Every structure is written in C-alpha cells, then in structure tokens.
Structure prediction request, 286 residues.
Amino acid sequence: MNSQEYIEVSMKITPFSEENAEILMAELDEVPFESFSVEEPYLKGYIPKDSYNAQVLKLALSGMETDFDVEFGATLIPPTNWNALWEEQFTPIVVDGKCTIKATFHKGLKKTRFNITIDPKMAFGTGHHQTTFMMCRALLENEAAIKGKTVMDMGCGTAILAILAAKMGAAHTYGIDIDAVAAVSAFDNARLNKVSRHVETYCGDASLLQMGKYDVLLANINRNILIEDIPTYSRSLKKDGLLFVSGFYVEDMPMISGVAAQAGLEYVSHDSMDNWCCVKYVKKQF
Prediction:
C-alpha cells in the first residue's frame, strides 16, 4: 500500500469546457502533477505533498495565454491506498472484440487476439478515454500498415498504443511523453507485456522525433499541441507514412486537416465517438 500524502489542487476554469481542461493540462506540463481528473467546472490535479509549491503553480497559471480564467485551491489528502481506488475505478475495455486492455488485478477475463495489461501507478485516471479507444481501433483496422514497420507513439502516456503496435508485429515502436513519470511507466508496461525488446520510451517533446523516420506516427494529444506539432510529425514520416491523430472534437477536424494539408499530409478517413474525433492522414509530399 502506498502511504504517500498527496495534495489535491482544484482549478476552477471559467468558462469551463473539456477542451479548456485539456489545454490547462498541457500548459501545466512543468508542474509535477502525477495525474488529473475533470469534474466540471474543475480540473483537479494530484501531486505528492513534498513536490507541491503554491508559488510555482501560481506563476505557471499567471504565465498562460489562454481564453479562460483559472482560480485554484489546494487540499491535503490523507494517506490513501491508491491501488484499492484503482481497482474500484479501472474497468477492463475491449476494442471491437479484438483487443482487451486491463489492469494487473483483473483476473479470469476472456482472451481476445491482443491482450494488454497495464500496471496502474498514478492516483487517478485510467486512460480509458474515447480517443484511446478510437486510436486502438485505428491500429486494428490498419494491421497491414503496422506489421514490420517502425511506429512512433507521441504523447504515449501508459504506452497502450505502442504496446498494441508491438503486439501487432511492428518491427520497432517508440514512445515519447513530456511527463517523466509517464515515460517510466510506459517502459514498465512494455516490459510487463513482454514487448520491451521492441519498445523504446523517452521523456521529451516533439523535438525528439528527429531521432529517426517513421512509417506510422500516433498522436493522441490535445488540439493546440497537435496544431503546433503536426509539421514536425510530417517531417519525421517516411513517404506514404501514416499519421493518426486524436484528442480533439469533430468540429475541430477542419482546422487540424488544414494544418495537415499545409504540412504535406492528405486526409484519408476519420472516426468519431461522443463528439471526439480520430483522423488518418497519409504523407504524399516528400
């Protein structure tokens, strides 16, 4: 049992929207929050007591250039058995009957073709979002484009997508996340799923993509970061390489596709779920 004391920081967003909450999470990447939860009108961040500095957070919030306001307050959470909370909150997910994503404590589940086990280490949040589901579905629907290829999972989080690509037969997969805790967790999960020989994880941003060229790039990140980084994604793709992006709403797709087109990427298809969107592009210009 983890007896670490945590601080819960409640950040009130005005006006509130899930998109604004996503933007705020991205803006706070320098603050060592371990996880977040969204409870309208708040974004709640969880950080170890010893890592919390109200002045640092205040400076980070005051330096943001956003179209919404944020007020925050902090509360000490007493020592908690986070694993027990995870067990209550993390339910298995099955994608199109082909891929099961579960935690280490889920036993006796029916096997699917691809089975991914995640060792939850953070206080809150499962990663089981509509966008994760659609990105997994996109991989499953493009198996021929994955097998034997080089795949990059940008903003990898727990590395669900990188692990699935490796299990689908990718020659090598990479994961990059700006959060150091996530990058370590991603590697640990790759090892747990016995694909660590085929998965490399790094802590950093899109500038690390210059390490190589990729056949497939996956980016399940918020809209603003995608708009900023899609040109970098395109430069890192091989000719006829595929880009799959999610983390934004259906109404944002024209904006994303406009940026992609300027970067030499052609729209192929898209998927949607509860107004969230996942789009496939191909790199034709080189």
